[in-house]
């Protein structure tokens, strides 16, 4: 057998290297009696080819330090490619120094690979310096710089470079179209795409078309998207992969979900990704068409966390909380670990139904998934615990994220404290927030003004309302104005409340007039109540609350005939009164009660328990407030009606079915009446339990015969 020369060794080395057999190639490399630049470059390129970029860089450094072989332009292009792939900026700079040392800077291929390395590593200054030093710039040089400027958001500079080019290739156009799309300049992306079709002889490729369709999806441009689709059909373009995904996304997000579904079914076997399926899923969800969305979800084989979350959020947004909870349980059992978006969505479900037990389970899942301290999950936990009546747990969560609180964190906690009647704490927290330089938003101020309202801080409320406008430049919304009207009204300052309404910066709405009307009922102001009700009904003629509130004002003032007329008018106009309900959750089952509820399986036990409690609290000094029954009835009948109010029945049920000394949490859809408020104070003392009641406006914590609201609500 003839003796192998270096060329023979290199041929063998190249074969193994190009075949991906890099370990075998390395063994041959070690056996070689002499290694020239081709040998070293082949190994560096081989390691680069199989993705072992750090080894390729080390191979180069060994070449220049431990051998007398000089690197060539091909050596440098290979090692710069490896540096670029892993963003190895420091190593890239060392390699650059060897380019200068060996005098290879003038080679365009070396300069372009060096430019690409700096661009991908994010060093725009060095990239610009290299670019400026290239005497004869080719299209690749320009394209690299354009991509760099797009990646760093300098779209104007990218356009300037693009317009200086004498000739554009497909990469040039794609850099602009894709860059605009990825940076959120979707209109400019479509304009550039249109310019390409008009001015260039080049045909758009899959990257151009996918980016253009993505821009249409972001803008909801269904007509433009259809034109691109027509182009795909006309040119018989392959719509598998990225283009097919983008096409489905475009139709799904632009109101053409049925077309998207047909494309998906046609391309079922193609390489469609989870993004396309998720877009179609969201398309149906936005339409409120949950069943097709669930069928798509069930048809997916590889469902990642994004798909699970999209389906869960779809259920939540359309009010299917039980389905969301069921799907989340299935996800925990057999799906991927939930992420912070999944957990935040599920916590919002728990908040809406005030389910503390479910909320605690989600909290446990968040801890297990390592997401409990993420800002979005923590903010959702604060809201969940607060709405479920556990303000101490809400505060503990807030304290745990002291290093990464955002405006939402502070706002959530301020709102929570305000809703629980802890006005002074809420305002102190707001002052702490300002001291740290955090900027409040309009929702923060809703919390601040609510805090003032619930504890009757009139002067502070005026001051904060002024600060909101003059210091933080926040224009008052209807919510802020309603808080101010409520603030004045609860305090009996009805003339000031009326004056505020007449001078509001925005047109008074249902909430504004409703707030004034509610205050008129508390303070028995008939004439003003009639004005407020008339104005409210002129905006919303079928608002049952306005009729009921006005009738209640007349009843409270003993004007039974006028109250009867209002109720008859309500009946004649077929306006249905909102029924009062209370509910309590025990062992993950929600039990709902209405006034004089006779449907519950434990009805007899509940009524018997309530009758005994009624007698016992009377012995403690409780006097029924029969004025809370706004009908002209005998005293005994009124007392019986009061005894069977929904929140009292829920409490009796809770006392029967829960261990002694445990806290009862009751929810009510309307404002608690005076009699129930007084009775529950006595009940809490009688049974030695804390009773937390959430009504339509706030939380009441009853304990030892007292309420956290101090009878100001």
From TrEMBL:
PPR repeats lie at residues 5-39, 138-172, 273-303, 304-338, 406-440, 543-577. The keyword Cytoplasm does not apply. This is Pentatricopeptide repeat-containing protein. Signal peptide: none annotated. PANTHER family: DYW DOMAIN-CONTAINING PROTEIN, PENTATRICOPEPTIDE REPEAT-CONTAINING PROTEIN. One of its GO terms (molecular function) is RNA binding. Belongs to the PPR family. PCMP-H subfamily. The lineage of its organism: Eukaryota, Viridiplantae, Streptophyta, Embryophyta, Tracheophyta. InterPro entries: DYW_dom, E_motif, PPR_At4g14850-like_plant, PPR_rpt, TPR-like_helical_dom_sf. Residues 621-713 form the DYW domain. GO terms for biological process: RNA modification. Keywords: Repeat. It holds the Pfam family E_motif. SUPFAM superfamilies: TPR-like. It comes from Solanum tuberosum (Potato).
